[in-house]
From TrEMBL:
Name the record gives this protein: GNAT superfamily N-acetyltransferase
Taxonomic lineage: Bacteria, Bacillati, Actinomycetota, Actinomycetes, Kitasatosporales
Keywords, comma-separated and alphabetical: Transferase
One Pfam family named in its UniProt record: Acetyltransf_1
InterPro entries found in the cross-reference section: Acyl_CoA_acyltransferase, GNAT_dom
One function term, GO molecular function aspect: acyltransferase activity, transferring groups other than amino-acyl groups
Superkingdom of origin: Bacteria
Domain N-acetyltransferase residue range list: 2-161
């Protein structure tokens, strides 16, 4: 049985380590940098805010020599919009980080942490959850019921400043 738990503040560095591994797997480039410190601080800040906001579920790595580590995580955020038909509270979820340490792949940890995150979203009154899937992970998300919703459009506004 997989033991999934809600992340704690002391998991911040490990969640960022897994986030870095996720980005490296997505584009083939390891990108260390100041963003890691900023991400750890943001995780700590967002996790400490009362009320629905950041949800993070983890599976601990095997005990052994060295410092404790995480085997996997799924992290998402609740965005509160205006209520609408079918979305009484206006709460939408976004999954932005699912990663399993390479040493633990194939054990169902990504599924377990993602299901825990989806249950948490449902408990918080979220009515729709979105995510971006890599080709390797698409089968997992489809098996959980995810499907195309609309054609996404995005714009990098950082150059407008």
């Amino acid at each position: 049985m997989i033991m999934t738990r809600f992340a704690r503040p002391e998991d911040a560095a490990e969640i960022v380590r897994l986030r870095r591994a996720m980005f490296a797997a997505m584009d083939g480039h390891d990108s260390p940098g100041p963003w890691e410190r900023d991400a750890e601080e943001a995780f700590l800040r967002q996790l400490s805010v009362a009320g629905p906001g950041l949800g993070a579920f983890v599976v601990d790595g095997d005990p052994g020599p060295g410092r404790p580590h995480l085997a996997a995580c799924a992290v998402g955020r609740i965005e509160e919009r205006l209520p609408a038909p079918g979305h009484a509270l206006g709460r939408f979820g976004f999954v932005f980080n699912v990663c399993t340490d390479a040493r633990y792949r194939g054990r169902g940890f990504a599924r377990s942490t993602t299901e825990a995150l989806l249950d948490w979203f449902a408990d918080q009154g979220v009515t729709r959850v979105d995510l971006h899937a890599t080709p390797d992970a698409e089968h997992l998300y489809r098996s959980l019921g995810f499907a195309e919703h609309s054609v996404p459009l995005s714009l990098d506004v950082s150059r407008r400043a």
